[in-house]
Specification:
The chain is mainly α. Helix content is 77%, strand content 0%.
Length: 257
């Protein structure tokens, strides 16, 4: 499943439930953006430490709001109806898990930005190399947002370590798909800054649906490849031999676990 096809599917999902998703997007914006916007303002004003503290505090609202938006995205992708009250389910059972997942992500983001700021000031080859390296890691870090939210909802094993591990597996198993999807999302995020109406009405909800659609597509393709490999092994096995048992590696190759 290509990145552009997934984008098209997500766009179709968005327009199928346009008004409900617009309302959910507005709720997400009202809850999440005040502290995130304050952190950005403090950083732009030259107070990086205060910006970092506010960014960490923003996770208290941003994380469960994301969980609620992801629950709605799940209904949309699965073709089920939803009510806007479902958004507030993210502030109930998934709340603690979302704090842990997005809290770790925010801490990692702040550490990456600190390293970029430090090595970017070094006027030598090592500084340039490390700056490029951390920029690449930063792109990967943002790409994990595609998978973290959906996996925290659809997995039966919802331990933080398992969610993060499987998000990394999905991202690294389909690097071109992941990077292209991240690039396309970056373009839309940039447009949303220049066209605030997109941010107010659509962007967050669209990203939630897009991320859920991308996650389920990558998982489905991984399972299809695994089934094809098992069928190939079964066909190549000697007649009468017992079927090979897949031992697995603690769930590393099965993102749904």
């Amino acid at each position: 499943m290509g990145a552009f096809r997934t984008f098209w599917q997500a766009g179709r999902d968005l327009f199928d439930e346009l008004f409900g998703l617009m309302f959910a997007n507005l709720l997400w914006l009202l809850i999440s953006m005040p502290l995130l916007g304050l952190a950005f303002f403090l950083f732009a004003a030259g107070s990086p430490l205060a910006a970092g503290v506010v960014a960490l505090l923003s996770v208290l609202l941003f994380a469960p709001a994301n969980a609620g938006l992801t629950l709605i995205a799940q209904r949309v992708v699965e073709g089920r109806t939803f009510e806007w009250r479902l958004f507030f389910e993210g502030f109930r059972e998934p709340r603690v898990l979302s704090w842990q997942i997005y809290g770790l992500w925010m801490i990692g983001l702040l550490l990456l930005l600190v390293n970029l700021g430090f090595y970017g000031q070094l006027a030598n080859g090592i500084g340039a190399f490390l700056t490029v390296l951390f920029l690449y890691i930063l792109v990967i870090w943002f790409s994990l947002l595609i998978y973290l939210g959906p996996l925290s909802i659809i997995q039966t094993d919802r331990r933080v370590r398992t969610v993060w591990r499987n998000a990394l597996i999905l991202a690294l198993s389909r690097p071109f798909f992941t990077l292209l999807t991240t690039f396309l999302m970056g373009i839309i995020a940039t447009l949303s800054i220049w066209i605030p109406l997109l941010l107010i009405l659509l962007t967050a909800a669209f990203f939630a649906v897009w991320g859920f659609r991308a996650t389920t597509n990558v998982i489905a393709e991984a399972e299809e490849r695994r089934r094809a490999l098992e069928e190939k092994r079964a066909a190549a096995a000697p007649s009468g031999a017992p079927p090979a048992q897949e031992k697995g590696r603690g769930g590393q190759v099965r993102p749904r676990d």
